[in-house]
Amino acid sequence: MQRDFIWLWFYEIGIAADSNRTLNVDSTAMTLPMSDPTAWATAMNNLGMAPLGIAGQPILPDFDPALGMMTGIPPITPMMPGLGIVPPPIPPDMPVVKEIIHCKSCTLFPPNPNLPPPATRERPPGCKTVFVGGLPENGTEQIIVEVFEQCGEIIAIRKSKKNFCHIRFAEEYMVDKALYLSGYRIRLGSSTDKKDTGRLHVDFAQARDDLYEWECKQRMLAREERHRRRMEEERLRPPSPPPVVHYSDHECSIVAEKLKDDSKFSEAVQTLLTWIERGEVNRRSANNFYSMIQSANSHVRRLLNEKAAHEKDMEEAKEKFKQALSGILIQFEQIVAVYHSASKQKAWDHFTKAQRKNISVWCKQAEEIRNIHNDELMGIRREEEMEMSDDEIEETTETKETEESALVSQAETLKEENDSLRWQLDAYRNEVELLKQEQGKAHREDDPNKEQQLKLLQQALQGMQQHLLKVQEEYKRKEAELEKVKDDKLQVEKMLESLKEKESCASRLCTSSQDSDYPLEKTLNSSPIKSEREALLVGIISTFLHVHPFGASIEYICSYLHRLDNKICTSDVECLMSRLQHTFKQEMTGVGASLEKRWKFCGFEGLKLT
């Protein structure tokens, strides 16, 4: 008779009353023979669960009755006794097997594994609070603590009268462990009353405390990130220059000594520049600053000598590079000559097809590299020739030594060019021989030289067309500029004509004014002004009083005139002003002790009266 066995693991969890809550677990294994499957199905139906193992899926497929234990590894669940840490991630292909959980006051039965997982809302940021629904009507807060304290430390429980509550944990990962209990059926004791049973529904809850703590944490992380970034920027920022000391005689002597030292010149000249920009130069310190500027000027010759030395080193390096490049070019010419000689019929017939192909490829690569190096060398020589021509334009007279060195360098360059041309001639001869051999074997339809010539001609035509377009655009632009200049010229001519008309009108007015000046001269002869000095004084006093419309005392007027001439007398000035009654008038201002005589300018009113 075939017998089926089901292993049931029962966990008893002891919850201590103190703050340090620990889980005391006693797991016992019981082996129940399923001799009466009908009784087992009835018990499962009373609990409202579909019996496992009867629907065609064995509960323990890997059970070995000979060994009396499972051959596979039992599934790890977050509610397994003794695990107080976050459970390891479960692979998606591994089925999660939930087991019966025994507590002191209640028992939790797992949901049907064939049913879909319970739905949950979107997890709020920093969630530490869960909503628990489906509690038994007779459930107390002690039973809730007993069930959910296995998930972690509980901070607070808010229980409602409508069979649900909110539980706030100490850490966020404890919420994931509490969600594992969603879907479990809870039964208080061994009672089958509906008030003692219920189906737990655990979901994320949105709490202001969680959100506030999460925002505080994010702000703290942002502050740390900003501090870290600021420290990194400060570490990478170049150090600021040292502060420049204030000017004094002692510091001036120190800077003057540093200016004479080549190693400390840059620091000292920066200090000198800062002092001058600050405005430290005055009559007392002008000699010190002049001596420091003279010391700075003495370094010009040294810098020019250093520049000449560096230029000499650069010329020597260029010469070495040119010599090395010419040597490399000669070796490339020799390698190409080897390839061409190997391509001749005497040696070519003895190579295999693959070897011939490799030799031809190598020959093309070597020729390309040789041409590149040859162009580079020729470019260097052209630059040298251009520099030499510039030097000839700038320096008309050269010494004999430089002429001899130029002749020697030209002779060397001509010799190198002769060698390179000889190698190129040999290479061209070998290429002509190869072409003749290939033409004798097979006639080619396309000539690459013609294609290259056609390409060159097309490029030249395109360049000429572009140049023609540029010339046409420039011609149009010049025409527009010419028209603009013509318009400007017409405007200038009109302005000249108007100026001429104005000048003629002005000349007419001048003649008329001269005619009217004759009677004034007669009157001037009989005027109270006796000398040119008195006329100057009248003009200065008139200007001064015109600026002071409320008048001025004779002492104030004389103090102003004493700045111009100390010999002016107050009585003479007062006598002159009293003689010119139509130009100046005297008034009394003030009351009582503040009574004062003031002179005012009345020339404009007197002109009307006269």
From TrEMBL:
Residues 293-327, 411-502 form a coiled coil. One of its GO terms (biological process) is ultradian rhythm. The gene is ENOX2. Residues 128-207 form the RRM domain. One of its GO terms (cellular component) is extracellular region. Keywords: Biological rhythms, Cell membrane, Coiled coil, Copper, Electron transport, Membrane, NAD, Oxidoreductase, RNA-binding, Secreted, Transport. PANTHER family: ECTO-NOX DISULFIDE-THIOL EXCHANGER, ECTO-NOX DISULFIDE-THIOL EXCHANGER 2. InterPro entries: ENOX, ENOX1/2_dom, ENOX_RRM, Nucleotide-bd_a/b_plait_sf, RBD_domain_sf, RRM_dom. It comes from the Eukaryota. It is found in: Cell membrane; Secreted, Extracellular space. This is Ecto-NOX disulfide-thiol exchanger 2. Its main location: membrane. One of its GO terms (molecular function) is oxidoreductase activity. Belongs to the ENOX family. Its cofactor is Cu cation. The keyword Oxidoreductase applies.
